[in-house]
Structures are given as C-alpha cells and as structure tokens.
Amino acid sequence: MPRLCLFLLAALGVVGCQNRIPDDALALQPDTLERRLLESRRFAGGKEIEILSACSGVVQDMGFTIDESATPLGVMVASKNREAGDTGGRVAMALLFGANAANSMDRSQKIRICIVIKPVAGKEGKEWVVRATFQRAVWNSYGQLTRLEGLREPELYQQFFEKLSKSVFLEAQKI
Question: What domain count does the chain have?
Fold first, then answer.
C-alpha cells in the first residue's frame, strides 16, 4: 500500500509539471512587419500562372532547382546545395585542436526559397502579392544538421525581386 501511495504521488508530480503554452505564443514579434516588407512585393495585372512562371524562371536563373510546385495553390519551393565553411579555417582547426575538430566543421549547406503567391484586390483591379523566404540548412562532415536559419539579407531579397519584376514585365509583354 505505501508503494502505491508513493507511485500515485510521483504520478501527480509529473502531471503537475506539465508545460503550458506561453501567453505570448501567438503574439506577433516586433520585427514581423519589417520582415514582411522585406519578403513581399505586389504585382499588378496578369494571371497567377504567369507570375508563378516568372518566379520559376528567376529561381532557375539564380541556380536553384525546383523541388516542389503546387500551381493551383500558388506555391513553389526550390533549393541549391553549396559548400559551407572555408578550407583555411579547417586547416587551422586541425592544427590547433586536432583532426577531429576540423572534420566536424560545417561542410555543406542547402539554401531553400519558398514562394507563395496570393491574390489581393488592388487599385488597378487584380493584384498579386509574392512572398519569398530564404532559409539555410548547414550540415557538418558527420552529416549532422548544425544550423537551420532564415536568411534576412536585404540584398538577397532585392536581387530576387528586381529580377522577378523584369521577368513579370516580359511575361506580360509576351517577350
């Protein structure tokens, strides 16, 4: 009987330690608006398929391979693989801390872009909001994921949207 009481008290203690959802879990972060402005642009006129086609051409021109595309939903995901880290850094790590330290450094990375196209009502009729987000996943030489992060360099988004703007114009002109 004492063991049963001890077990029940332990069980109640575990249940009482259950985590609850933080009050601010669904609250917008202070930089949400700034991030949306960086990641989104409006395009007037045209059809969703034309905008998606222009996005497809731009990401391929930037060296990405299209992984997934759901045309009826206006969604596209593309990626490209690159080496991560520098060889000089690996050599220095090997000299300072031994071969294992150099071997565990970041080796490869995958840059992904996710594009979502959404129709909105605009001043000139139908408009489209294109939102692009860039992410990076980095693996070390053991194949372990060491970093997963969103990329927020303004130059990256400016480059993408400048190319997309030109491509959308050319699509609209049937050039």
Answer: 1
Q: Supply φ then ψ for residue 54, to 5 degrees.
A: -65, -40
pLDDT, tens digit, 9 for 90 and up, residues 11-48 = 555 555 556 777 776 777 777 888 989 999 999 878 88
How far apart (Å, rounded) are the C-alpha atoms in residues 97 and 167?
A: 50
Q: Any idea what the CATH number is for the domain that residue 164 is in?
A: 3.30.530
Non-local CB neighbours of 98 within 8 Å, separated by 6+ positions: none
Reported pTM: 0.72
- Residue 26 resides in a domain: no
Q: For residue 141, what are the domain limits?
A: 38-172
DSSP secondary structure, 64-82, as one string: -EEEEEEGGGTEEEEEEEE
